[in-house]
From TrEMBL:
Gene3D superfamilies: SH3 Domains, Tetratricopeptide repeat domain. Transmembrane segments: none annotated. Keywords: SH3 domain. InterPro entries: SH3-like_dom_sf, SH3_domain, SH3TC1/SH3TC2, TPR-like_helical_dom_sf, TPR_rpt. Residues 162-225 form the SH3 domain. Residues 322-344 are annotated as: Disordered. This is SH3 domain-containing protein. The keyword Transmembrane helix does not apply. The keyword Transport does not apply.
Length: 1229
């Protein structure tokens, strides 16, 4: 809900209805959803915006539902109908279009209706009604009941609703008071101001006599010259809410832009970090973006030299001092009449009836006399009772004494028949009594002021003041009949005489009555004027929140056909933007400013004011990051539009103000450069160069030489950033040549420093060092320690590139020392950058502790300066340090979370999602349940972002990652769900390569776990492998086949596993990968062994051994020989029953075990050989030999007993057959 104090509460539905109506909803969405680059990339397009379309039926249905919940509602009858009267008498008759207050049925009763014309009530089961629009709904509900109900139904059938011109009296009429005109039938009456048919009276001038007074609308008929007015304003009426002084606004805009730009362009040295930043995002395509040939480069140099020569020939223009106060001056401030210029009178002790008494009153009576209005009267009519006391002196603030004095003066005027003096004295007495809350006495005085006999009222401002004050009293005393009658007369004056508006400034109820009558009679022009008067009344009283609804409605009426002419929409939206800014509604403020600036009626002053509103609300739009977005990209359309008025783009019809044009162009160019659109930045500056050369530039707002040089230096920097250092050197050399030879300036050091950067970019390190040294000398001369530190840092970076590391460290350290001694936030960004570079130097030198210190110092400085770009750069370096250079998961998590917080404030959702992924992986690597739950939380957050951004691949991976973590946490009931959603999202991408990768990763969730590994077979064999075959992705086929073999081995599905093992073998041979070939042979041998195909098993084991590298390099390779030969011996001995060949394999295994000194394997092998020689080959000598060796190993290994009986052999064989699948195989890399 948005509350407007003093005028009720506007619902969110009402505000949304209005935002959709004027197009603000789409613009607010642009501020929230579109990134900064959009505002710059869309400048070349005629109109790019988010358009929100809501079906009117849907919106109306929602609106009606909300109204029904609130209870009573205002609606218009959609057809003529009768209502049963709630009181004795005739039934209530309502015509089509009549607006009334309806109450929905309650407990089976019908609808209840309250007529706003006379307060009559009626009922009907199902009335035909249509709710009024939200503004009318809100306004009518905010009206007090004594204003809302009554005043009768507008019965005039005058053919024009909002007329101007003249009319003719249709009947004879005798005036009922001095404020009315007496008419004869056929009299021609000239309408003073406007005739509004819904009011009973209008102000007219009788053509035959020239008298001005009130005329009843029902007494006249149109004349030939009568027509509908298209203007809601009266002649000479002030139409603006605030004054737009274009020259002042230009000066203030230039001062503001210079203040914002000076750190980036004209005063602060640039650090040479071109390799790390400022790289263009856009491809180089043309002269402004790509490489310039020799002719183009020479042409640019010629233009610049021409500009510099022209500057030398001109006399130096002094800089004007510009105030930076508000750019908008309220009209009310200039139009107020101060009390000091008004009349002053002295109160003397008087007694009624004496001659002396009359003499003392002569000055006062003389001043108040006369039928015509005098400017001095305005001070009296508009003053409050408290300030009225100050007009009279000698009463010691005793109101009774002043009232007595004025009372005697009134009586004296009555006796002397000084009617106008008497009338004005009655008015003053009435105001004083009202100020003392003596309303009945005040009413008597005001009524006497109206009834004093005279020919007619010519002081219409006095008449309006009496009416206004008397109306307030009638309203307070609940005399609604007289209040309505008087309000009708006030309406006639307000529609006819501009000065009368000031009489109702103290009370808005009369204006609300006027608006009510306009709404009930469906008179949109009258409604527009009433809204304007109410909005301006609240504006002058400083009640911005109360002014907003009326100004909003005025702008809607302005846009409706035929529309309200003479109201500049750009001014209206700017006024609305100012009010939104005061109410801390930045999005609506910026939307209003954009609407005002882009409207065809906008002028240069409107564009500059709109830009000021955007800059004023930058901090509110972007939170606390004020330094980062001193100029947000939303300003780009305002800069572009303003430049079109200065003749910057179209060259025709512009104002030709070169100083303003340069300030705007520099600002726009900086925005392009900041967002990596260097081609656009260079092109805009080249156009400014052409504008400088134009003949008109010599006579229209010429810039000073330092300002001109600033623009050229900035152009040089853009060419450096755009990889065109040779062009930059031409510009900088020309600027240097134009400077006085024997008079050094700070700007000279700026140019030398930038020359150093350009020379370094060309590879001329020696001359670059000389330029940096000259820049430091200039800084030394002027005591500029901040820029001296930057030049010192540049020299250090130059030494790094030249390989002089010690010298580089020295210069960088000196720069840090100088920057650390400076005060003020303007140096903190450069300080942070230099600290970061010094830290990077130490990290590269593997002095990690020093590197950490400087990194962390840089981060502290970036946090202190509240500069998120620098914070982000330092944080990313720290993340890389703790993830890749010296891994530390805890520190890496801390800095990644800080990076996440920074990205959240910047609104960079893409990078935010990626950092969330990284943090999730870091928590997952910790391996604890708590860390896994944290990883799950971060994964779900990244999932939400990827869904919002429509990044389907990232979304699928996030779903899969969440399923994987749930599997680790043992929440198996959710795993299948998340994996299935991941698969569905992946399939929706249509990217076969990604789908294959995702399906394999889904299988890995189960494959790499200890439970439900069999679920991986479906993903590998049924889904991923067919895609890999279809796409001929041999590497993935090999990997999937190997994984399937391992799974099927575990599941003891040996026959199915053989097929995948043979596939893996074929692919390995095809790829020529000997390691994969060994793995495939080994697995086939194992499978054949398990299937009982021992000869094949023996063949493949031997083939595996033949593929092993020779000579053996690692103990692991020798151990593999031991195990394979031992396995071969077991196969031959136990399964093929060939002790002799088995002994041979055991001998080979024993030799390999002896080579690596593996006593446990030697014990096993010696025991088996002793058993074979003892029981089967019957070689007692060898049997004893191996038995003794086995006893020696058993003693070393603390094994108590060795059994050589044949029974042990059979039990060993059965044990082997149970565990024979668990044979080690070579690792598949």
């Amino acid at each position: 809900m948005v509350s407007w104090s003093g005028t009720g509460t506007r619902s969110r539905a009402s505000r949304t209805y209005w935002e959709v109506e004027v197009g603000f909803l789409g613009q607010c969405m642009e501020n929230l959803l579109l990134d900064q680059d959009f505002w710059l990339s869309s400048l070349d397009q005629e109109y790019v915006a988010i358009e929100i379309s809501i079906q009117e039926e849907t919106l109306n249905l929602i609106y009606k539902g909300i109204l029904m919940q609130e209870g009573s509602l205002f609606a218009s009858c959609s057809s003529t109908q009768m209502f049963d009267s709630s009181t004795p008498g005739r039934d209530l008759y309502m015509e089509q279009g009549d607006i009334a207050l309806f109450e929905p049925p309650f407990l089976g009763s019908g609808w209840t209706v309250l007529s706003l014309g006379d307060g009559a009530r009626g009922t009907k089961p199902k009335p035909a009604l249509e709710p009024v629009i939200p503004f009318h709904q809100w306004f009518l509900k905010s009206c007090a009941e004594n204003i809302l109900v009554g005043s009768g139904k507008p019965a005039c059938d005058f053919p024009c609703q909002f007329a101007t011109g003249s009319c003719v009296a249709s009947v004879e009429y005798d005036a009922g008071g001095p404020d009315e005109l007496s008419l004869e039938q056929g009299d021609r009456i000239i309408i003073v101001g406007l005739l509004v048919s819904c009011f009973e009276w209008f102000t007219g001038r009788l053509e035959r006599t020239g008298e001005v007074g009130l005329v009843m609308t029902t007494l006249v008929r149109p004349a030939d010259s009568l027509c509908e007015a298209s203007d809601i304003f009266l002649e000479k009426e002030e139409r603006l809410f605030f004054n737009l002084k274009e020259d002042q606004i230009k000066e203030e805009t230039i001062a503001l832009l210079k203040k914002i730009n000076q750190n980036d362009v004209g005063h602060v040295y640039k650090l040479d970090l071109i390799d790390q930043q400022d790289s263009p995002k856009e491809p180089t395509q043309n002269v402004s973006q790509g490489n310039m040939d020799a002719h183009q480069q020479a042409e640019l140099k010629r233009k610049i030299e021409e500009i510099l020569l022209k500057g030398k020939m001109k006399s130096k223009v002094p800089n004007a001092t510009v105030t930076t106060n508000g750019t908008l001056e309220d009209h009310s401030e200039t139009s107020k009449t101060t009390l000091a210029s008004g009349p002053h009178f002295t109160v003397h002790p008087v007694e009624e009836g004496t001659t002396t008494n009359q003499e003392k009153f002569l000055p006062l009576l003389s001043f108040l006399g006369g039928s015509n209005y005098k400017p001095e009267f305005g001070a009296l009519y508009g003053q409050t009772p408290e300030r009225l006391l100050a007009t009279f002196t000698g009463h010691s603030d005793d109101v009774d004494k002043l009232v007595a004095y004025l009372g005697v003066a009134r009586e004296t005027a009555r006796k002397k028949r000084l009617h106008w003096s008497q009338s004005r004295l009655c008015f003053l007495l009435g105001k004083l009594c009202a100020g003392r809350s003596k309303f009945s006495q005040a009413r008597v005085y005001f009524e006497e002021a109206l009834s004093v006999p005279r020919d007619g009222f010519t002081d219409m401002l006095m008449l309006a003041s009496i009416y206004a004050n008397l109306a307030v009293i009638y309203l307070m005393q609940k005399n609604t009949e007289k209040y309505f009658a008087l309000s009708e007369r006030i309406a006639a004056l307000l529609m006819g005489i501009p000065d009368c508006v000031s009489t109702v400034e103290k009370d808005s109820e009369v204006l609300k009555f006027i608006l009510k009558k306009a709404v009930l009679s469906h008179n949109k022009m009258a409604e527009a004027r009433a809204c304007f008067l109410l909005a301006k009344l609240h504006w002058r009283r400083g009640e911005g929140a109360d002014a907003v609804p009326f100004l909003e409605r005025l702008l809607v009426l302005l846009a409706e056909p035929p529309g309200v002419r003479s109201v500049a929409p750009s001014h209206g939206y700017l006024s609305l933007g100012r009010l939104y800014s005061q109410l801390s509604l930045p999005h609506l403020c910026v939307s209003s400013a954009r609407k005002a600036t882009m409207h065809p009626s906008a002028r240069l002053a409107d564009c500059l004011n709109g830009m000021g509103l955007v800059l004023e609300n930058t901090a509110r739009l972007y939170g606390i990051r004020k330094q980062d977005v001193a100029i947000p990209a939303q300003v780009a359309p305002y800069l572009s539009r303003s430049l079109s008025f200065t003749g910057r783009f179209d060259g025709v019809g512009g104002t030709g103000d070169l100083t303003l044009s340069q300030a705007l162009t520099l600002c726009l160019s900086q925005l392009f450069q900041k967002h990596g659109m260097l081609g656009h930045a260079v092109r805009s500056m080249h156009t400014l160069i052409d504008h400088h050369r134009a003949p008109s530039s010599s006579s229209s707002g010429a810039t000073s030489i330092p300002e001109r040089n600033i623009a050229l230096v900035w152009l040089a920097w853009l060419h450096i950033c755009n990889s065109q250092p040779e062009v930059s050197l031409d510009i900088l050399d020309s600027v240097l040549a134009s400077m006085p030879e024997h008079c050094t300036t700070p700007q000279e050091g700026l140019v030398h420093n930038m020359r150093g950067v350009a020379l370094r970019s060309t590879g001329d390190l020696r001359r670059a060092a000389e330029s940096y040294q000259m820049a430091m000398d200039v800084c030394e001369e002027f005591g500029d320690r901040a820029n001296r530190a930057v030049a010192e840092a540049n020299l250090g970076l130059l030494c790094l590139k030249a390989g002089a590391k010690r010298l580089a460290e020295q210069h960088l350290t000196e720069a840090v020392e100088m920057l650390s001694a400076l005060e003020g936030q303007e140096h903190e960004v450069n300080f942070t950058t230099v600290l970061l570079e010094l830290g990077q130097y130490y990290v590269n030198q593997r002095l990690l502790d020093r590197g950490k210190i400087y990194y962390e110092w840089a981060l502290l400085m970036a946090i202190k300066s509240n500069h998120s770009d620098n914070q982000l750069s330092v944080t990313r370096r720290l993340c890389h340090l703790y993830s890749a250079v010296c891994p530390d998961e805890a520190q890496c998590i801390i800095y990644n979370e800080h990076q996440l917080a920074l990205l959240a404030t910047r609104g960079d959702r893409r990078q935010e999602g990626e950092v969330l992924e990284t943090i999730s992986q870091l928590y997952l690597s910790l391996g604890t349940e708590r860390a896994r739950r944290s990883a799950l939380d971060y994964t779900k957050r990244s999932l939400g972002i990827f869904i919002d951004l429509g990044r389907r691949e990232k979304e699928a991976n996030a779903w899969l990652q969440a399923g994987k973590i749930y599997h680790m946490l043992g929440q198996t009931e959710l795993v299948d769900l998340y994996v299935q959603v991941a698969q569905d999202v992946g399939l929706s991408t249509g990217d076969t390569h990604f789908i294959l990768q995702l399906l394999e990763a889904a299988g890995d969730v189960f494959f790499n776990s200890s439970t439900e590994r069999e679920k991986a077979v479906c993903f590998y064999g049924d889904r991923a492998l067919p895609i890999a075959v279809r796409t001929s992705n041999t590497e993935v086929r090999l990997r999937l086949s190997n994984k399937l073999v391992e799974l099927l081995l575990q599941m003891k599905l040996y026959g199915e596993a053989v097929e995948y093992a043979l596939t893996a073998l074929d692919i390995s041979v095809q790829l020529g990968n000997r390691l994969n070939e060994r793995v495939a042979f080994h697995r086939l041998a194992t499978l054949y062994h398990c299937l009982g195909q021992f000869e094949l098993a023996e063949h493949h084991y031997l083939k595996t051994l033949s593929l092993c590298p020779t000579p053996l390099e690692f103990d692991e390779e020798t151990l593999y020989y031991v195990r394979v030969y031992q396995t071969l011996g077991d196969i031959i001995f136990y399964d093929l029953k060939d002790p002799y060949d088995a002994a041979g394999y055991y001998h080979l295994a024993l030799a390999a075990a002896m080579d690596i000194g593996n006593k446990k394997s030697q014990l096993q092998l010696c025991t088996r050989l002793a058993t074979i020689y003892h029981n089967f080959l019957v070689d007692r000598e060898l049997s004893l030999f191996f038995y003794q060796k086995a006893r020696a190993f058993a003693s070393d290994l603390n094994v108590r007993r060795i059994n050589l009986s044949p029974d042990q052999i059979f039990s060993s064989m059965s044990q082997y057959k149970t565990n024979r699948v668990n044979i080690s195989e070579p690792r598949n890399k």
